[in-house]
TrEMBL record:
Mn(2+) binds at residue 138. One of its GO terms (molecular function) is hydrolase activity, acting on glycosyl bonds. Homotrimer. Binds 1 Mn(2+) ion per subunit. Keywords: Glycosidase, Hydrolase, Lyase, Manganese, Metal-binding. This is Pseudouridine-5'-phosphate glycosidase. PANTHER family: CARBOHYDRATE KINASE PFKB DOMAIN-CONTAINING PROTEIN, ZGC:136858. Signal peptide: none annotated. Catalyzes the reversible cleavage of pseudouridine 5'-phosphate (PsiMP) to ribose 5-phosphate and uracil. Functions biologically in the cleavage direction, as part of a pseudouridine degradation pathway. The active site is at residues 25, 159. Belongs to the pseudouridine-5'-phosphate glycosidase family.
Length: 315
């Protein structure tokens, strides 16, 4: 790439070879958990992608440079840093122009992935419509990004702290395919099931990859959201979480928490109220998503090569 972008040698070699690459966000490092658990988890997720045939590309802005993949030293420094900016679509160019250091959200990671030519991104859960959005108009930029940027995002649904019905409704309005994996209902982040039927269901990475490639071939903008349920052994049932989430939301209102501070506050409070169980579930679902994303990226690569071979074949 040209401009203020840098790739690790590992990522550059994989992209040049047409090998599967999976994008990863960095807010899980800076805003998701404390040192050294954040560093250990980030490395574990990268290793999971490598173990399943892919190359990880963790995104972050360091002193104004957008990094496509991080070295161990860069990841360590980011994991130890404090007061790191949280970058979405609006903040990303400003941070780069002013040589700021910042961690990428889902929206910013999708943008970085597109710039690098990476088609698959694994995360925990997407942002969406916040509860009370009819008063606050608090809606994550992740939803619009999914409708505009051609990246397949593998997540355990939307974060359970959100207004899930409104989130799914907005994605439908924006024309974003929401694909449940292996079940007919949408997962709810820490919980496998929910009361929301899945608009689409695909069970094989090859089929998800084919849908991604077909969407591009048709010239349709945007990506697709792959809602991958957390492994059964790691989930927290929705009925267990419901009163805990309500308590955390009430406390956030009481404490006047708003805007970008809401999600970190709620996740921290839920961690406390579940005695750490929510964090363990979060790590399990991210690893699960990384595995599936590597498989989808691999299948997209196979399809691309088949299409290229068919195009080059003599008539």
């Amino acid at each position: 790439m040209t401009g203020p972008f840098e790739q690790t040698e590992e990522v550059r070699a994989a992209l040049d070879a047409g090998a599967p690459v999976v994008a990863l966000e960095s807010t899980i490092i800076t805003h998701g958990m404390p040192w050294p658990r954040n560093f250990e988890t980030a490395r574990q997720v990268e290793d999971e992608i490598r173990a399943h045939g892919g190359t990880p590309a963790t995104m972050a802005v360091i002193k104004g440079v957008l990094h496509i993949g991080l070295t161990e030293g860069q990841m360590t420094d980011l994991a130890k840093a404090r007061d790191v900016a949280k970058l979405s679509r609006a903040d990303l160019p400003v941070a780069m122009a002013t040589r700021t250091t910042g961690a990428t959200t889902v929206a910013a990671t999708m943008i970085a992935a597109r710039l690098a030519g990476i088609e698959v991104f694994a995360t925990g859960g997407i942002g969406g419509v916040h509860r009370g959005a009819e008063r606050s108009f608090d809606v994550s930029a992740d939803l619009r990004e999914l409708s505009e940027t051609p990246v397949t995002v593998v997540a355990a649904g939307a974060k359970a702290i959100l207004d899930l019905p409104k989130t799914w409704e907005m994605l439908e309005t924006l024309g974003v395919p929401v694909i449940a994996v292996g079940q007919d209902v949408l997962p709810a982040f820490w919980s496998r099931g929910s009361e929301h039927p899945a608009p689409l269901r695909l069970d094989r990475p090859a089929d998800i990859a084919a849908a991604h490639v077909m969407r591009g071939a048709m010239g349709l903008p945007g990506g697709q959201l792959v809602a991958n349920p957390i492994p059964e052994a790691d989930e927290i049932p929705a009925e267990t979480l419901a009163p805990i989430i309500e308590q955390a939301l009430s406390e956030a209102i009481r404490d006047g928490v708003s805007a970008k501070a809401v999600t970190p506050y709620l996740l921290s409070r839920i961690f406390e109220l579940t005695e750490g169980r929510s964090l363990e579930a979060n790590i399990a679902l991210v690893l699960n998503n990384a595995r599936l994303a590597a498989g989808i990226a691999r299948e997209i690569g196979i399809l691309r090569k088949e299409i290229a071979g068919a195009t080059d074949a003599p008539l």
